[in-house]
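WP5 quarterly update. Target: DUF2231 domain-containing protein. Source organism: Mycolicibacterium chubuense. Length: 189 aa.
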Amino acid sequence: MNLHRALAAVERFRVLDGVAATASRVAGTAVDRARLGGVLRGSWLGHPVHPLLVTVPIGAWTTSAVFDVVFKDPAAARRLVGIGLLATPPTVLAGWADYALLNRPQQRVGLVHAASNGTAVLLFALSYRAYRRERLPAARRYCLLGLAAMGVGGALGGHLSYAQGAGVFRWQPVRALTDRSPREYLHAA
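Structure tokens (predicted):
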């Protein structure tokens, strides 16, 4: 199986176009109304914020499995799952701020990326609850399913960046190279 072909197939899910248009409009309006677009997109840093923030939930949730399975420390695993859940809201906000700038094929992939990661968040929330209730088999099962969903979401996020070029040249002088604004450049891709 060619993973690139499977990920690229999501770009052609035209059935998502109505939802993508609405999600883009809502994301753009919410971010612009709150005047958070530049902050959430990382203009203050000169680097997109979403890819930096995702490392916290990914690292916490992956490490939680290691602490539970390898070190037999479900309390530490529960805390790590909680850290990942706490890091999720700013990560999601930064992702939605970026979403508003994507072209339609990128938005299709972005929706499936968000749905997969949303599934992961739900599964990790269930894992956290199971850990708190000391239902370790259920906690582990939810954690493993969450890791799988997170892996799919991560692969789609990587496809957005590396195959589709989402966010590429965001702060570089694109106008000088193409005679287009960065937004025009991204939407023409």
